[in-house]
UniProtKB/TrEMBL annotation:
Enzyme Commission number: 6.1.1.2
Organism listed in the record: Alkalihalophilus pseudofirmus (strain ATCC BAA-2126 / JCM 17055 / OF4)
Biological processes annotated in GO: tryptophanyl-tRNA aminoacylation
Name of this protein: Tryptophan--tRNA ligase
Cross-referenced NCBIfam families: trpS
Catalytic activity: tRNA(Trp) + L-tryptophan + ATP = L-tryptophyl-tRNA(Trp) + AMP + diphosphate + H(+)
Gene: trpS
Enzyme class: ligase
UniProt xrefs under InterPro entries: aa-tRNA-synth_I_CS, aa-tRNA-synth_Ic, Rossmann-like_a/b/a_fold, Trp-tRNA-ligase, Trp-tRNA_synthetase
Gene Ontology MF: a single term: tryptophan-tRNA ligase activity
Gene3D superfamilies hit by this protein: HUPs, Tyrosyl-Transfer RNA Synthetase
Superkingdom assignment: Bacteria
């Protein structure tokens, strides 16, 4: 039997995940946890770089785990843990990696520049080293694959660069990770400008926790084809022609999409009905997820994280022992 490759995926505990997060990071969970030796972890240490509020860390960590469990993450197939449960191992590895990585490259990193602009009053030492900590998360389990958005590929490149430098100094110890960018997900905002994001306001995104009524109300107000002002005007049911159709392309099945394409082009369906159909498709996705997520109490979630921590510590200790030996430290 061929050994499965290792996949490592970090989840930010930023609270209130939305449909864009689902398409970008959760919809393939069923497949990934089957195909790979998968580690899903909540990046509660990374969150300290920009969200250092003690009262939020624990509830948001639990909420993130619950959302992923609702989306189909299975603790019997994948290892689920909080990054902080590997704090000792990751911090140690991060220390060794930080001796290899050049500061200039980190300061030039576009994601650092962007975060430094967003959080100008809190540009910490940790924020500069964020990609190095990320690299430690990947190397600690010898990750072959890391699912990322296209804007995060730069972090994979930095990790590969660190691994090459480290390996050339100490031997072939660290596995070079590969970024997995699935079909670029750009779920549009309900407001029609940019991609779905919390930064544009609560009315422009649909949270995975939104109730049926909230979803219906938000979708009712969604921006649609601006050229269609009367029911008798044929619309433009394409990804670029209508924001609502663009959302249908992610959340409605082929039958619904084809029906809308035909009836909208023939001016045979109104936008109100079309939006109702979109709400129905979204609710069909979110309601079962919410039900599954709510079945897990805080105690259940903590148990899952504890169990994951146990498994992951064993794997991390093996890596640390190898690294220490290669560096020449007394064991
Ligand atoms: Fe857009 Fe649907 Fe209206 Fe056509 S019917 S313009 S696809 S909202």
């Amino acid at each position: 039997m061929t050994q499965k490759q290792t996949l490592v995926s970090g989840i930010r505990p930023t609270g209130d995940l939305h449909l864009g997060n689902y398409i970008g990071a959760m919809k393939d969970i069923h497949r990934l946890q089957k195909e790979y030796e998968a580690y899903f972890f909540i990046v509660d240490l990374h969150a300290l770089t920009t969200h250092p509020k003690p009262e939020l860390i624990k509830p948001r960590t639990r909420d993130a785990v619950r959302s992923y469990l609702g989306a189909g993450l299975d603790p019997n197939q994948a290892t689920i843990y909080a990054q902080s449960s590997l704090a000792a191992e990751i911090s140690e590895l991060h220390l060794y990696l930080s001796m290899v990585m050049h500061i200039g490259e980190l300061l030039r990193c576009p994601t650092f520049k962007e975060k430094a602009k967003q959080h100008a009053d809190h540009v910490s030492y940790g924020l500069v080293g964020y990609p190095v900590l990320m690299a430690a998360d990947m190397f600690i389990h010898g990750a072959h694959k890391v699912p990322v958005g296209a804007d995060q590929l730069v972090h994979i490149e930095i990790a590969r660069d660190i691994a090459r430098k480290f390996n050339s100094m100490y031997g072939e110890i660290l596995t070079l990770p590969n970024g997995m960018v699935e079909k670029e997900a750009r779920v549009p905002s309900l407001g029609g400008k940019g991609k779905m994001s919390k930064s544009l306001g609560a009315k422009t995104y649909i949270s995975l926790q939104d109730s049926k009524e909230t979803i219906e109300n938000k979708v009712k107000r969604a921006y649609s084809d601006p050229t269609r002002t009367h029911l008798s005007d044929p619309g433009h049911p394409t990804v670029d022609g209508c924001n609502v159709y663009h959302l249908h392309s992610y959340f409605s099945n082929e039958e619904v999409r084809k029906d809308i394409e035909k009836r909208c082009s023939d001016a045979n369906i109104g936008c109100v009905r079309c939006k109702q159909m979109l709400s129905e498709s979204i609710i069909e996705l979110t309601e079962p997820m919410q039900k599954r997520a709510l079945a897990y109490s805080d105690i259940d979630v903590d148990d899952i994280l504890r169990e994951g921590a146990k498994k992951t510590q064993e794997s991390a200790q093996v890596t640390i022992a190898k690294v220490r030996k290669a560096i020449g430290l007394i064991q």
